Amino acid sequence: MTQDIRHFAEELDELKQRLLLMGGLAEERVRAATAAIVARDQDAVEAVIAGDEPLNELHKEIDARSFRLLALHQPMAVDLRAILAAVKINSDLERVGDLAVNIAEAGRRYLKHPPVKPLIDIPRMAGVAQGMLRDALDAYVRGDVPLAQAVLAKDDTLDALKDQVFRDLLTFMVRDQSTVEPSLDLILISRHLERVGDHATNVAEDVVFMVSAKDVRHTANS
Amino acid sequence: MTQDIRHFAEELDELKQRLLLMGGLAEERVRAATAAIVARDQDAVEAVIAGDEPLNELHKEIDARSFRLLALHQPMAVDLRAILAAVKINSDLERVGDLAVNIAEAGRRYLKHPPVKPLIDIPRMAGVAQGMLRDALDAYVRGDVPLAQAVLAKDDTLDALKDQVFRDLLTFMVRDQSTVEPSLDLILISRHLERVGDHATNVAEDVVFMVSAKDVRHTANS
Asked: By CB atoms within 10 Å of each CB, which of A3, A205, B54, B211 scores lowest?
């Protein structure tokens, strides 16, 4: 192993570790936003809205690292695919951070009204989405295709929960006008959580491509 | 100019032309989805829902082209940034195509009810979002930073329109329960259109990075 190759391997490993860190942060922000709404904790909601900076910094750093690796080492095959995957995953994680802000912003409005209904489905959706994100990133770091495929399979669960939330809240809204505004925000929150799952799905698809050079997007299950 | 460099320049130019084609298709699908809803044309709504395949094929093709260019030519500096930008823009355009489907799906539900209100703001939002997308792609192909910056400035217009739509429809929903379901779908449509603008913004940011190697994301205006 030459010095250069060892150096490249170390830098690629560092890149993956930074992505893992970013994924952990993004996941934590989704969890915090949802928990704040369930606990009706306005300060915690505001903390999520104000706290996007560390993720944004990581986003820039990881893009710069990816660019440097491509420019200096001109990697081939699986290494090239791993870096391109990192560039895409980085964008997905940054959007997850934005979605945590969107969730908290809808939560801020929601907390101005009395509770519409017990929020059971919302933390459940958040839990599924967070789990998908965590598994997708583990799959990236380990190059684990079966784990990535398990993530793809979970997207339907999240869609079904979102549709359930929509139907439930529609019933409330049609029956009682005072619930229209807060119900609307819960519907938006459930859609933001579904999009967190979509980003996890994107990450999982990138993992399959990275490992197998096979493009699984736009097939029957995606 | 060596054979290889000329070959690379041609391939990069071809990649950009394919992205332009994809951008045109994505924009057209957003236009078609919105026009179908305004015209209350159910067949046209269904055609948008069923018509995602050409964009998905282009998405895969452009990713494969980008990968091949990186692997075979190991480009540096602005060329490397142009290809990385292509990879990201490709993802953004594919999502715009998905959003056209989301708009049409909400439209399908919306058309089951009598009209809630004249849809003036919805085609206006679509027009702004389409214009942003078109300008962002022109800016990419021409490397035109001022044009990209003009796109970034327009995002606020779209946000303001979205908030206006939200407030208007909320009034309808609270006053008259029969408008709850269709109003909800119009709100979702306006959010999908806002996200089309977000993707155009992403493209514009990539253009600034490509040309100037300057990361303008997460600054005060973004």
From this structure: A3
